[in-house]
Amino acid sequence: MIRCITFDEAYSHPDFADLLAGYGDECAINGLPAPDCQPEQYKALELTGAFHVFGAFSGDRMIGFLGLLISVIPHYGAMVATTESFFVDPDKRQSGAGIKLLRIAEAVAKDLGAVGLLVSAPFGGKLADVMEKVGYTETNRVFFRGLA
Asked: Which pLDDT belongs to residue 123?
């Protein structure tokens, strides 16, 4: 089951810490510090309507999550949504939870006036292959250079 949840619901769920650790392991960006979840920032963004959370559940177990940021991109003057985080337990990926999370994020983004959804996928990861199969087009490549 997929549903819209609050950040507090996600953060306080007993399975969230393990999912967050898995996300950090799989999606870490070389050169950035280890993930350090900032609950107060997420809650502040959520209060403005700029951040939305979706959870994937199997019974009482949380098996995945998607964090969605939505705002006007000044260069285009259009509302665009972006996945801030997107992760499904590797053992549950065949359940369809990932595509269901993506589809609910698309629907909510559209309802909020977004003209599109940008999805970030780790370089060399399986998500990039999935995105092309479900109708997304690779548009950019993102580069990082540590400054510390």
From this structure: 84
- Residue 57: both structure tokens together: 């559940």
Take residue 61 and report the two structure tokens written for it: 């177990």
Residue 63's alpha-carbon distances to 43, 91, 94, in angstroms, are 21, 9, 12
Q: Record the tokens describing residue 50, joined without a space.
A: 């700029």
CA distance 50 to 71: 6
Give residue-wise pLDDT tens across range 83-142: 999 999 999 999 999 999 999 999 999 999 999 999 999 888 889 889 999 999 999 988
Q: Hey, which bits of the chain come out as E strands?
A: 2-5, 51-58, 61-73, 78-88, 117-118
* Neighbouring C-alpha atoms within 13 Å toward the C-beta of 144: 10
- For the chain, give the number of residues: 148
